[in-house]
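Incident log, support desk, overnight shift.

02:14 A customer reports that sequence design results differ from what the structure should imply. Their input is reproduced verbatim below. On-call engineer (initials T.W.) acknowledged and began investigating.
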């Protein structure tokens, strides 16, 4: 959901008021792994439909993919995708992850996400609150591809190989569509 600002310009005389409405789209607040997940899903041809959890992956993905130059802000807590999710309880995710295939990963999704997001930030050279465009994020992500096994070191190699392949396809599609 975008927030819009109404700007009223008063010109000259008090009896003559000109009103102008300027719509300024809100910067998208996003976790690094959410951006990466969007790229990977796009690489696999995802349609980005609403999810039963009610999160906003579908709407955020569409906005970013519609205009890769959209401004984003790095968020390590609850982002615009998390905001409407049924698992977002006062800004904290109460969901758990399947650790059966990654036993060294934290059980709580918020702990897993933070761990992975911090690793992404380190590789991308970003920190909480940094602002950039989606295109700039993609350029940085491309330089981090070799780090996928380290960023997701709790995952088995086969899952990381699939993730890497999907991200590469997504980045290629984005670059092609941005021409």
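02:41 Re-run completed on a clean worker. Output:
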């Amino acid at each position: 959901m975008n927030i819009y600002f109404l700007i009223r310009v008063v010109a000259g005389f008090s009896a003559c008021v000109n009103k102008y409405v300027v719509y300024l789209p809100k910067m998208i607040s996003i976790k690094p792994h959410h951006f990466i997940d969007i790229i990977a899903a796009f690489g696999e041809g995802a349609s980005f439909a609403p999810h039963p959890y009610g999160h906003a992956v579908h709407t955020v993905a569409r906005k970013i993919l519609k205009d890769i130059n959209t401004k984003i802000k790095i968020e390590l807590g609850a982002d615009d995708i998390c905001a409407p999710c049924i698992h977002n309880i006062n800004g904290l995710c109460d969901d758990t992850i399947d650790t059966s295939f990654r036993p060294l990963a934290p059980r709580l999704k918020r702990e897993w996400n933070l761990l992975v997001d911090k690793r992404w930030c380190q590789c991308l050279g970003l920190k909480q609150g940094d602002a950039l465009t989606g295109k700039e994020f993609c350029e940085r992500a491309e330089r981090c591809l070799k780090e996928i096994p380290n960023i997701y070191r709790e995952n088995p190699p086969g899952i990381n190989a699939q993730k890497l392949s999907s991200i590469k396809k997504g980045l290629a599609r984005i670059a092609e569509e941005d021409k």
